[in-house]
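Weekly sync, protein design subgroup
Attendees: M.S., D.O., the rotation student, P.L. (late)

Item 1: inverse folding check
M.S. brought a backbone from last month's batch and wanted to see whether the design step gives back something sensible before we order anything. D.O. pointed out we never logged the input encoding, so this time it goes straight into the notes. Structure tokens as presented (263 positions):
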């Protein structure tokens, strides 16, 4: 609007034409999309999330972090029950996003089974000294890409085999310091190792519209291996339900409804 202010007066029809031209049309899909990776926050209440899902004509899935960590509010059966009860009257899917290994040990299977899905990523990597490397932090530095990727891929496979979840979230995410070296880091061999573990353990792959991962090559390889896909934004605000990247990948990779995970 700063440019418009400099050239006033401008007629309302002209402004409308400019604004309409700036809106990038979304590619159509032959099946309904959803966002299964939405977090509630001070910027997005459940009521706001429901309203946004109506405006974007898609169902949202709400997730929260369970486990023992400094930002995990669900740490026992009672807290999980309260979380489920608080969301059951809203038209949303209800899921969890554990970030630490062994989270299931804190909860009864009968209560976990009330969830509609569970997502997990490999962005918090346990270290030998007992610390957790949170590679999603913007100041994360990687000194040796090959060494990092060996550890990272191995951790992917460990959680895919051991943690019992439905969707691999933020798939192929890289720390900010090396995100511009995606093709170097994610070789075909590394991609296939993760894809094989995904398929073997019947876990879907999230196409994330915030981080814009995984790339088309990974998705095509995963599709050829028989993997299924889900959609998410990892959003805590009005970005929830944004599907530009997901739609682009659906079209570019030839995804069909049979390729899509449903809670």
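Designed sequence read out in the meeting:
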């Amino acid at each position: 609007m700063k440019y418009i202010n400099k050239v006033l007066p401008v007629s309302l029809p002209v402004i409308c034409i400019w604004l309409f031209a700036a809106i990038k049309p979304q590619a159509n899909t032959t099946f309904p999309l959803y966002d299964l990776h939405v977090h509630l926050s001070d910027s997005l209440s459940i009521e706001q999330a429901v309203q946004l899902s109506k405006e974007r004509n898609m169902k949202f899935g709400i997730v929260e972090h369970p486990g023992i960590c400094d930002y995990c509010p669900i740490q026992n059966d009672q807290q999980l029950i309260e979380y489920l009860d608080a969301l059951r009257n809203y038209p949303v899917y209800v899921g969890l996003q554990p970030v630490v290994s062994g989270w299931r040990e804190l909860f009864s299977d009968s209560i976990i089974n009330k969830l509609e899905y569970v997502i997990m990523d490999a962005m918090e990597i346990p270290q030998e000294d007992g610390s957790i490397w949170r590679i999603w932090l913007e100041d994360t530095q990687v000194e040796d890409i090959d060494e990092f990727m060996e550890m990272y891929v191995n951790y992917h496979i460990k959680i895919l085999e051991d943690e019992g979840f439905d969707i691999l979230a933020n798939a192929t995410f890289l720390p900010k310091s090396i995100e511009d070296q995606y093709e170097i880091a994610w070789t075909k061999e590394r991609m296939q190792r993760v894809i094989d573990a995904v398929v073997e353990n019947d876990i879907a792959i999230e196409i994330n519209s915030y981080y814009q991962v995984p790339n088309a090559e990974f998705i095509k390889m995963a599709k050829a291996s028989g993997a299924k896909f889900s959609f998410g934004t990892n959003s805590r605000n009005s970005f929830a339900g944004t599907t530009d990247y997901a739609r682009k990948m659906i079209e570019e990779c030839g995804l069909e409804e049979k390729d899509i995970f449903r809670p």
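Discussion: The radius of gyration is 20 Å. Residues 145-162 form the longest helix (18 residues).
Action: P.L. to compare against the previous round before Friday.
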